[in-house]
Amino acid sequence: xxxxxxxxxxxxxxxxxxxxxxxxxxxxxxxxxxxxxxxxxxxxxxxxxxxxxxxxxxxxxxxxxxxxxxxxxxxxxxxxxxxxxxxxxxxxxxxxxxxxxxxxxxxxxxxxxxxxxxxxxxxxxxxxxxxxxxxxxxxxxxxxxxxxxxxxxxxxxxxxxxxxxxxxxxxxxxxxxxxxxxxxxxxxxxxxxxxxxxxxxxxxxxxxxxxxxxxxxxxxxxxxxxxxxxxxxxxxxxxxxxxxxxxxxxxxxxxxxxxxxxxxxxxxxxxxxxxxxxxxxxxxxxxxxxxxxxxxxxxxxxxxxxxxxxxxxxxxxxxxxxxxxxxxxxxxxxxxxxxxxxxxxxxxxxxxxxxxxxxxxxxxxxxxxxxxxxxxxxxxxxxxxxxxxxxxxxxxxxxxxxxxxxxxxxxxxxxxxxxxxxxxxxxxxxxxxxxxxxxxxxxxxxxx
Length: 448
What we know:
Layout: E1 5-9, H1 16-24, E2 42-48, E3 51-57, H2 69-83, E4 86-92, H3 99-110, E5 115-120, H4 128-133, E6 143-144, H5 153-164, E7 183-189, H6 195-203, E8 221-227, E9 230-236, H7 249-264, E10 267-273, H8 280-291, E11 295-301, H9 309-323, E12 331-334, H10 343-357, H11 363-376, E13 388-396, E14 401-407, H12 414-427, E15 436-440
Parallel strand pairs: 1-3, 1-4, 4-5, 5-6, 7-9, 7-10, 10-11, 11-12, 14-15
Antiparallel strand pairs: 2-3, 8-9, 13-14
Helix pairs in contact: 11-12
C-alpha cells in the first residue's frame, strides 16, 4: 500500500527544500540562498513524530511564460499538487504575504487538494506578524514553522495527521538476493545528453523538466517505476562537466549529488550524445562508475539523428575498449529518447547485468576454472623462481570480489592478474561487470 503524499509548494526561496530535508531527516535536496535552486520534483519518505508519508519538494512557483524554463517548472509543481493527498503551502513569515503568495493562494483555492499554510522562518517572535497576515490568504489557520531550527513541528503534525495518518503496515524488507527487489538504475552523463528526456520516455509522462538549456536538472531525482512487471528505482542526475569548468557552488553540489547517486546504484547507464561522439569526459565518468564497483551500460542516445551510424558505433566501441582498462568488452547499446527505440533492450541489459553483479560462484566451480586457466597460461618465474598460485575463492558480491592465494604473489605482474580477470569474466559470463581480485600469500611461520 503506497504512502500518502504531501507536496510542498510556494514561491522561490521560502525554505521549501530546507523543510523537505528536515522531514526526511537528511540533506538530500540542494539548498542555497539563491532562488530557483530546485527545478524537478524530488520525493522522499518523511517521518514526523510517528507519522510516515511521502514528501514532495517542488520548484518555486513563478508567474512566467509557460514555454520558458520557470514556466515548465511551474507545470511540474501544478502536477505535483494534483497528485498529492495534501499540499503544504510555505510562505516567508519575515517578509509577510507577497503578491506572488496571493496568486499561488488563488490557484490553490480552486484545486481539490487540501492545503495547509506554513509560515516558515518564524523562529523567535520575528515571524508572528507574517503568520497573522497569512490568514488573508483564505486557506485556514497558518502554522508558524522554522525549518532551519526544527521549530513548530508539533503544530505541523496536528495539521497533517488527518490527511496522512493510516494503519501501520509492516515495512517490507528488501533482500539483496531477492530477484523481485527494485533495480536501482542511475542515468548519468554530460549536460544535454538527453538524460531527463530518456527518463520521461521510459515513464511515458513529462515527469522531468526538459529543454534546450544545458544543466536543467540539478538534484538527483529518484522515481519508483515498473517495467514489464519488474520494479525499478530510476534516478535522473545532473550533467557532469569537466572538473575545471565547475566553478559555481551550486553546480559543485549537483556534482556531489550525482556521485552519491552512482554510489547508491546497482547499474549505471552512461548516456552519450551520438551527435557529439565520445569525449574524454565520458571516459572519466565511466571510469568513476567502475571504480565505485557499479555495473555499467553505455547508451548512445539521439541515434535517430546520428550520421554514419555504423562507423560511429564501431569507433565509440573501440575507443571505450582502449580507454577503459577495467573492462575488456563494455556493454554498448543505441537508444533514442525521442522515439523510445532501444529502451527495452537497455532495461533488459540492465537487469541481466544486475544479476551478474550479484552472482556468487562456488569455490569448487572457481577452482576448476582456476586450475585450467593456470595450466593453459602458467604464471612467470621472475629470477628463475616460480610463482605458485594455489586456489581462489569469492569473498563478496556487488561487485564480485575474489581472493587468489599463492606464494610470491607480490611479484605477479599486473598483466597476469588482468589475464585471470578476463578469463574469469569470459568463463562465467560475467559481462560488463567490474570485478575485484586480491592476491594473498599464506603467513610464513619462520618470518621472524
